[in-house]
Structures are given as C-alpha cells and as structure tokens.
Prior knowledge:
The chain has helices at residues 152-190, 250-267, and strands at residues 14-16, 19-22, 32-36, 43-50, 59-63, 71-73, 81-83, 89-91, 100-108, 113-120. It is α+β, with helices and mostly antiparallel strands. The relative contact order is 0.11.
Amino acid sequence: MGGPCFWDIPYKGVLFAVVHVIPEAPSVGQNVTLSVEGGLEPLRHFDWYRGRLADGSTRIFSYFPGQGRPQRNGVQFTGREVGFPNGSLLLRGAQANDSGTYRVALQLVPQGSEKGTVELRVSAPATTLGPRTLPPPSSGTGPPPATAAPSTPQVLGWVVAGVVVGILLTGALGAVVIYHLVLRRSDLAGGSTGKLDPKGKKPPRSPRDDTEPIYEVMESPLELPQPEGRNPKTDPRAPPAMPLPPQPDPNYMELLQRAESMYAQIQR
C-alpha cells in the first residue's frame, strides 16, 4: 500500500523542523512560501511531499544543494513548485485544490535528519459587491420599458419568412401574366375580336339569323369613261369626290329578287 511512512518509524536522532506558511491566509492566485526555520547544520538534500504519506507517489521534488541541477521533480510536481537551498518551497499561483498537508524531510551533514509538517489552506478571494439599487416603481404614466432586441435566430426566421412570401407572390404574378398571354393568343388564333361574357361563353344567336337575307356589296367591274384630251382640274382644298355607287350585277339582282320572294312567303 505504498510502504511505511517516514514519520511512523521511530528513528534516533530525528528532529522536528518548524515550517511557516507565508502569507498565513493565502488566497487563490497568490504565491505561497512554505518556509523552513533554518538551523546551523548544512543540508545534504531534502524532499517535499504532498499528502499524509511520504513515498514516491506523494513526492513533489528532491533538492540537492550545490549541484548543477539541484531539483529533481516527482509525480506530484505541477510546474509551480520551486525549492530553495535552505529547505523552503515556493508555490506559485496557488489554487484551491493545492490545499492539504505538506511534509518535508531534511537530511543533514554529516548525518542526522529533521522532519516537518504544515497544513495549507487556500481560500477563494473575497468579492466585494456594491449596494444593489432597485428600479423605481412604475407610476403608470411614464413611457413603457424598452423591449429587448430580438435574438439572432428570431431575425433569421423573419428573413426566411419574407423570402418565402416574396417567392410565392412572384410565382402567382407570373402565372397571371402567362394566363393572359395564352388567352390573348387563343383569341387571335380563333379570329375572335369581341370579349367573352363573365362565364366565358359566347352570346346566344338570334333565331332570325338563318331567315334574314344576306346582302353583299360587290364592286362594279365597269369604269366610267373619261373624255379624251380633258383632265379635270381638282381643287386641293376641296374634299375628295365621293365614288359613284357600283352598278348591280344582273345575276345578283335575280338572286336578290328570289330571296325577297322567299322571305315574303315565310312571313305569310
């Protein structure tokens, strides 16, 4: 389970070292020194431990004064611990989880040892809160409180809704335009120049359409003779002369007489 503790073994000649915490009540973020009260004997080396046991699993570092690389770090080293030749430990930027029991084992020259124990408590910095002011009660006559600005997702929802509505309106307008163009072309192709009634039906035909005579005006193939050598003068300010009515064709007159007789018989 980690072996016996150094402080649990009675050892003749072991002395107790005094360790001080500087400052006495450190806060989070402060540098803390675990200072060993120095004696007259020089140190051969010393070891610092974090926890109740003093073995390899709790060793922070070992320090050998006078060597080129005096500090040998252990498994509990966090990068913030620094040793001094007098046996002290500097903990930089203390954190709340650094609180606990710290032990030191000092090996003296030429022989002998000392041990020391200290409890470290790192407290959170005290926060100073100013006096809290409450808003004055509303009298009902002042302006309403300002509403909070809409969040980004709400603004994006409005933008998407506007785009969708615009697309739908554009599609509806395009459909109406295409419908009118197709209807206009169909009217031109069918030769219809009139307008349809509201129900899209043509006006009903009169029963007299089939019985009434059909009159047709035809141009006369004969032209009036012009006297030779004479060119009648025309006044440019006078209105143009009305053309003479065409002479009816004998065949057409015969057809017209037959039609009138048939109409007279139907009325009888």
